[in-house]
Specification:
CATH topology of the largest domain: Arc Repressor Mutant, subunit A
Strand content: 5-15%
CATH architecture of the largest domain: Orthogonal Bundle
Strand order of the largest sheet: 1-2
Structural class: mainly alpha
Order of helices and strands: EEHHHHH
Distance between the termini: 46 Å
Number of strands: 2
Amino acid sequence: MHKHVIGHCPICDTHLKVTTLSCPSCKTEIKGDFELSKFNYLAKNQLYFVEMFIKNQGNIKRLEKDLNISYPTVKKTLDEIILALGYTPFDDEQKEVLTKEQILEKLARKEISKEDALKKLGGL
């Protein structure tokens, strides 16, 4: 049975850090504060979606068929993964697609100004 590294604390949902690396052969241990990949912070279903997206070479039609989901579901899931990886998804007109909660989160992290947040909230 394969055990996978989890990226979020099961208690408070904060990003976890790796603090010890060990060699199963010689038993060497390295202690420190190591970062996980952005992909370690994706949920299992999101990681599976990314795997299938790559398997299908980004072909949406094949992805829809492989996962038995509709185009809007593919688009929504892809946008959620893009956000989870720290990027901003764009719609067909190249405008930012952000929910009220995402705008408020960006404001809290000081990624956007109060003025920008108010403009974006006014557009919803």
